[in-house]
Design goal:
heterodimer, A: about 450 residues, mainly beta, three-stranded antiparallel sheet, about 45% strand, B: about 575 residues, alpha/beta, ten-stranded mixed sheet, two-stranded antiparallel sheet, 17 helices
């Protein structure tokens, strides 16, 4: 059952603009959030419930305008999955445009152009020490300092040197420690190294103005092959193209893209639970193809890319990494959600346009791996060679203009998703999403 | 209910209000960002425990008159570490008072370095050298007790040590009291390596030191004490270097008594073992029957031997004014010569000051220095200072009595040619009776920097009349002090002398105290300079000589060696 085709003139009307005063998300996942809202196609359901597996009818165009706000006040998850105050507060707004077109009644084509409107991140330095990235950076510095201390005969192995540093060891004279970026940090005599490293890392991680603008453009093709009885299933092929800013963005400014081409295969399954509920499960497997380019950021001035030439005569580098490098994302990214939708029309016909849903979302992201090295690093490159994950629980409301008596071809959905678990996540943001959908039939 | 444009507008407004309640639009900012790392100074240190430990260290450093190990450049630090206590420089006028305090402390425990009884003397094996070649001497295990009070009461502990006696010879064997290196026990292999053929012509006495065992090792390094078990278990509690010196002087005293038959007749070595007249004695003067004795030591034992020498210097200085030797010290030992194999200089100068800082701060446990012999126990000695239970002055004296530079005036007065000592009516300290010292060190030493020997030499050579005022002030009728002849031999390319039996070390490059940066007044001295020392520092002449060769020729030398 569908409402398509009944009020073509209305489909040309633009839906009401949706006012959202704030959004956020973590800068690092801005485009990911936008993509998540750009699921290729959904077919209006009888009672404001749209099954996941539906495709657009032939020659129907849908434009969706996502407006996503992600905010956080320090919530994060450590590598062991423990929720922490990671000292990062985010206020990110993403929008964009998703265009879908029904090639046939079973196949739709879609394109998402995300746009980062606002990309603010604040840091509370004291709490930032809880972050995994801080610990990795601290380890890097300890290795550098320990190497020097061993040469001076102060300590005989890494663990002993680290323990000595932790007790407040200070160099007896102003000593320059070569950082992994090749930069030299002169630690004054008498300043405990464990304090120096705090000043170093928090300043190296201090957020600046985040990049805004276009993110990674997605292209997708969705095919619905099953639509029998209560079940429906569709498969989609999604191409994430690295059109967002990435390579030349210093860490302080945060990128708008992921920097690498990814191919995704998506499964969308739904099952009607009687007339009033629809359960859905969407799962996407993304695989990064080839390698992306990545540049190192200075640690002493994180608004600048690293231009220190620390290449040795034999072509090697202090920490094995050149400033300009390539990276890959080994393994796959698994993301998706399980939801149950219902329509309020079950209570009264006047409520037909309204629906609601509850959703459990998950995202087990792949990690950035520079030069195919497996060691977990945080030495001026984005990413830390360690996977991250996030699980959310959300509620959603939908207003479906098709269910109005005069069938307005607009649908507006509002979702709020809150983190309920994760690991190695620097920012666990609460995400508000409002998506306005407009339809047009040729 | 109808949904028209008007009602949609109302719904939109309501929706926006809901979103706003979710905190949308909240501004974010950076908070508590500390200053940049490259702008930090010591004024920015926030850790209260770090500041408290630094304050304790600075308080003690000030009491000792030494630098606090803070410099802008490596070169500045080298200079600072090479500069001895102000007691030896700008504050020299206070040195006599410091020595007086130390002498009083020594006198109060002098009996603890005296022999109370020889418990047993047991033949262990025939002697050999470092290659296993037999040497005409025998190795004995001696068990003995020291005194606990001025009445000569024997302690409960039965201590152990080795002594080596030549198989033959009449009146030609010096008595060498040897302090072993490391802190893992006494191994005969160390004696065999350092003295070799000299065992056939010298009696060598070596205690195990408190809490340490006599190792049962026949070959290899002294870690074999673990592998092959103990010949004798350790007893007592170690107070690094200080009561090691008690053991060194005490066992020496027991052997002297045994040779003299004055141990009660139980172990009269002269009669029972055919060793009559084996020892070389002064042959003239008030001490004509006493053996010509040498204080010797390797590495940690080298420091112990100099601590013991300081004790003897204190004794002589205390008795010098009245001419009554032994008044404060009971029956003191009398040495004429000293040999130091790569011994450290003590905590107040050189690279050792770096680890002394960590020790006083209570953070040395994780440093490479913790493996240096005696450091673990030495650390415990300063725990009460760290805890604020004793004053910096108390802690200062613990450092002073283990420091070769600060006790230089006493060390320089310790060694005498007793042949010319006429007796109690004669002043104990005469320049004409000055004794002899030999220092041996490798300039590639990775355990004890060669600069420690240079610092010792520079300190002794650089002493002025003011600095030795305490000692010279005890003299009657003269303003000179006896001094000592010093021969320092630096072996080019040689590592730590006891490296074969000490392995638990890190690498100590000379980035702090380089051999070229601390030379000071280390040139040859005039033979009769007054006050001070005579001697020479020679870094090239012995390039092709072994340690044993050098020791042999020095013992035989009547010019600078231990032949009078």
């Amino acid at each position: 059952m569908t409402n398509f085709g009944k009020r073509p003139s209305a489909w040309k009307q633009l839906g009401a603009a949706v006012c959202i005063s704030g959004i956020a998300g973590v800068a690092f996942s801005v485009q990911a959030m936008a993509q998540e809202k750009a699921q290729p196609s959904e077919r209006p359901a009888p009672y404001a419930m749209s099954p996941e597996s539906t495709t657009l009818p032939e020659k129907v165009l849908r434009a969706r305008i996502p407006y996503i706000s992600a905010t956080s006040s320090g919530a994060a998850y450590d590598i062991d999955g423990k929720k922490i105050d990671g000292g990062l507060s985010a206020n990110v707004v993403a929008s964009g445009l998703a265009i879908e077109y029904g090639i046939s009644d079973k196949m739709s084509f879609g394109m998402l152009i995300p746009y980062v409107v606002k990309n603010d991140l604040g840091m509370n330095a004291e709490n930032f020490r809880n972050q995994r990235g801080y610990q990795l950076s601290k380890r890097n510095f300890y290795v550098s300092a320990s190497s020097l201390m061993m040469k001076q005969g102060i300590c005989s192995n890494l663990s002993a040197c680290w323990a000595l540093i932790d007790t407040g060891y200070a160099f007896p004279y102003d000593t320059t420690v070569q950082l992994t970026t090749g930069e030299g940090l002169t630690v004054p005599a008498g300043v405990p190294l464990n304090q120096g490293v705090y000043h170093l890392i928090t300043n190296a991680s201090k957020p600046g103005a985040g990049e805004t603008g276009m993110g990674d453009i997605d292209l997708g093709l969705k095919y619905r092959w099953l639509n029998e009885g209560p079940m429906g299933h569709a498969v989609s092929l999604v191409l994430h193209t690295p059109t967002g800013k990435y390579e030349d963005v210093p860490l302080a400014h945060r990128a708008t893209g992921r920097g690498i081409l990814e191919v995704g295969l998506r499964s969308s399954f739904d099952y009607k639970l009687g007339e009033d509920f629809i359960a859905g499960w969407q799962h996407t497997i993304d695989y990064a193809v080839g390698k992306g380019k990545i540049k190192r950021t200075q640690l002493l001035k994180n608004t600048e890319l690293d231009d220190v030439q620390d290449e040795a005569a034999d072509g090697s580098f202090a920490d094995g990494y050149a400033n300009d490098n390539k990276f890959d994302r080994p393994g796959v990214r698994n993301s998706g959600f399980i939801d149950v939708k219902t329509s309020f029309g079950r209570f009264s016909s006047v409520l037909n346009p309204l629906g609601a849903k509850v959703r459990y979302g998950y995202d087990y992201d792949s990690a950035v791996r520079v030069e195919e090295r497996e060691d977990a690093v945080s030495n001026g490159f984005r990413g830390a060679t360690e996977r991250s994950s996030m699980r959310t629980l959300g509620l959603g409301l939908v207003f479906d203009g098709f269910q109005l008596e005069n069938r307005v071809p607009v649908r507006v959905t509002w979702d709020i998703d809150s983190p309920i678990g994760g690991s190695n996540k620097a920012v666990a943001a609460v995400r508000n999403s409002v998506i306005t959908e407009l339809y047009y039939k040729f | 209910m109808r949904f028209d444009k008007k009602s949609m507008s109302r719904w939109s407004a309501a929706l926006a209000a809901v979103l706003a309640s979710q905190g949308c639009g909240k501004a974010v900012s950076n908070e508590n960002i500390p200053k940049a790392a490259d702008e930090l100074t010591t004024d920015d240190v926030t850790d209260e425990s770090v500041k408290a430990r630094q304050a304790k260290w600075e308080e003690l450093a000030a009491a000792l008159g030494i630098g606090t190990n803070r410099a802008t450049t490596s070169a500045d630090l080298v200079t600072q570490l090479g500069t001895p206590s102000t007691y030896l420089t700008t504050n020299a006028a206070q040195l006599p008072a410091l020595m007086s305090t130390l002498t009083t402390q020594y006198a109060a425990k002098a009996n603890q370095a005296r022999c109370a009884a020889v418990d047993s003397v047991t033949f262990w094996k025939n002697a050999y050298d470092s290659t296993g070649t037999a040497v005409a001497a025998k190795v004995y295990l001696m068990k003995y007790k020291l005194q606990t009070d001025t009445a000569g009461t024997a302690e409960e502990n039965v201590r152990s040590g080795l002594f080596v006696v030549p198989d033959a010879g009449t009146g030609n064997a010096r008595l060498i009291a040897y302090g072993h290196g490391g802190d893992s026990g006494l191994s005969y292999t160390e004696i065999a390596a350092n003295f070799g053929a000299l065992q056939a012509s010298n009696v060598i006495v070596a205690p195990a030191f408190p809490s340490e065992a006599v190792c049962n090792a026949n070959t290899g390094d002294n870690k074999a004490c673990d592998a092959e078990g103990n010949l004798a278990d350790g007893v007592g509690t170690s107070l690094p270097y200080d009561n090691d010196a008690d053991d060194l002087l005490g066992m020496y005293d027991c052997v002297v008594r045994a040779f003299a038959g004055s141990d009660g007749g139980n172990y009269n070595l002269s009669a029972a073992d055919g060793y009559a007249s084996r020892l070389k004695t002064h042959g003239a003067g008030a001490f004509s029957s006493r053996p010509i004795s040498v204080l010797a030591g390797a590495s940690r034992g080298g420091l112990v031997s100099l601590v013991a020498a300081g004790r003897m210097g204190a004794h002589l200085a205390a008795g010098a004014g009245t001419g009554a030797l032994g008044t404060a010290y009971g029956s003191p030992s009398f040495f004429s010569c000293s040999v130091n194999f790569a011994g450290p200089v003590g905590p107040t100068v050189g690279k050792a000051r770096i680890y002394f800082e960590l020790l006083v701060k209570g953070t040395i446990e994780n440093s490479a220095f913790i493996n240096l012999p005696g450091i673990r126990k030495l650390k415990d000695l300063f725990n009460d200072y760290i805890a604020g239970e004793v004053t910096a002055d108390v802690a200062k004296m613990r450092a002073v009595q283990r420091d070769v530079t600060l006790t230089s005036p006493l060390i320089a007065a310790a060694l005498q040619n007793w042949k010319t000592y006429a007796g109690s009516t004669q002043n104990a300290l005469l320049q004409s009776r000055r004794g002899r010292m030999l220092w041996l060190h490798g300039d590639a030493d990775t355990v004890v920097p060669v600069t420690d020997t240079q610092l010792q030499y520079n300190t002794l050579a650089g002493m002025t009349a003011t600095q030795v005022g305490y000692v010279s002030g005890q003299l009657t009728g003269t303003s000179t002090m006896p001094g000592v002849n010093v021969t320092a031999r630096i072996f080019s390319g040689a590592n730590h002398f006891d490296s074969v039996y000490y392995t638990a070390t890190g690498t100590y490059p000379d980035s702090y105290v380089s051999s070229t940066s601390i030379t000071g007044a280390s040139a040859s001295l005039d033979a009769n300079s007054t006050p001070g020392v005579d001697g020479f520092l020679n870094s090239t002449a012995q390039l092709n000589s072994t340690v044993s060769d050098t020791l042999t020729s020095w013992l035989a030398s009547s010019t600078y060696g231990c032949t009078f």
